[in-house]
Amino acid sequence: MLLSALFAVLPVIGAWAAPTIAARAAPTDADVLNYALTLEHLEANFYAQALAKFDDKAFAAAGYPNWVRGRISQIAQHEASHVKLLTTALTAAKVAPAQKCEYAFPLGDVKSFVGFATYLENIGVSAYAGANQYISDPLYSTVAATILSVEARHQGFLSGPVNYSNDWTGPYDTPLSLDMVYTLAAQVITKCPSTNPALPVQAFAPLTVGGAPVFAANAGQTISLTFDASKYDTKGKPLRAAIFNGLGSQLLDLVNNQITIPASIQGFSYVVITTAEDVTKVDSTNIVAGPAEVNTIFGDKASNPGFGNPYGA
Questions:
Q1: Of 252, 240, 247, 243, which Cα lies nearest the Cα of 276?
Q2: Which of 150, 179, 193, 240 is least enclosed, having the fewest CB within 10 Å?
Q3: Helix and strand numbers, DSSP H then E, in the chain
Q4: Separation of first and last alpha carbons in the chain
């Protein structure tokens, strides 16, 4: 395959190992569109709820310039447009479109909202990057690519100008499997309509880093992971952590539920707990928990007064 040939020549961290869906039929275009629609409903409702709760005065009191809420309002409009477009495409294809679910978003204050928005937008980028391989219709693939690039612009805006952090991760974003993305989304979904089409996904046990779904760390830092593997039969195999960063991946030793972030990592990474003995074998049959997101911040602290953890962890 052309894709395999491309990855063979890319300079990656460790071996290339896209998280895969194991022992399952490949998703159809309709499956992928409804999967994307489920995520877009989540994003659209997240922004709608937050903007209804936090007005201009709330943003100002939190220390944000007066233009931040206005641009976030534009992001909300983008997400609502994505919902409308995907719903229209599925309806035209005579496929029942997913309806919005019920959610429990972290909206305690403006800063927690902005931090979670940054996290959510990065997941959106990884979701489209990972799912595009399953789309066979060139038109759908093009539309997905245009949504992906907009999600990346959202993430860059929230990370950089708003949070004073790194606007990008590295030369490549990180594609995630459908299961891994859905695991992250499921943590804020409380209930979905029974009429929604079944998605070709499964959710793993949640994984948190430092008590949060996303954590800002330094390369070389040792961090603590929290998860519950009690419902997973490890068959006596030791647990390890796999970290995915851009088009690279590494298997890390898990000692007392702690890992050390490799010195070569920068930007947004995703960590899962697995029983796999080889990073190229990590898939949905051996993931125990996760992913959790780690942002290895890079740049010049001296020239960046807001440099730090935008997620409040």
A1: 240
A2: 193
A3: 7, 10
A4: 42
Q: What percent of the chain has pLDDT over 70?
A: 87
Q: Which of 246, 240, 253, 227 is nearest to 296 (CA)?
A: 246
3-state secondary structure of 300: coil
Stated as kind and residue range, the H or E segment containing 208 is strand 207-209
Q: Is 198 part of a structural domain of the chain?
A: no
Q: How far apart are CA 171 and CA 188, in angstroms?
A: 30
> How many Å apart are CA 2 and CA 65, to the nearest integer?
46
Give residue-wise pLDDT tens across range 89-124: 999 999 999 999 999 999 999 999 999 999 999 999
At residue 5, what are phi and psi to the nearest 5 degrees?
-65, -40
CA-based nearest residue to 56, from 48, 68, 46:
68
Q: pTM for the whole thing?
A: 0.87
* 33, 86 Cβ separation under 8 angstroms: yes
* CATH code of the domain containing 170: 1.20.1260.10
On whether residue 313 sits in a domain, the answer given is no
**Number of domains into which the chain is organized:** 2
Exposed, middle or buried by CB within 10 Å (0-12, 13-18, 19+), for 159?
buried
**Cβ atoms < 10 Å from Cβ of 302:** 7
- pLDDT tens digits along 8-46: 333 333 333 444 444 467 899 999 999 999 999 999 999
Cα Rg, the chain, nearest whole Å? 19
Residues in the chain, how many? 313
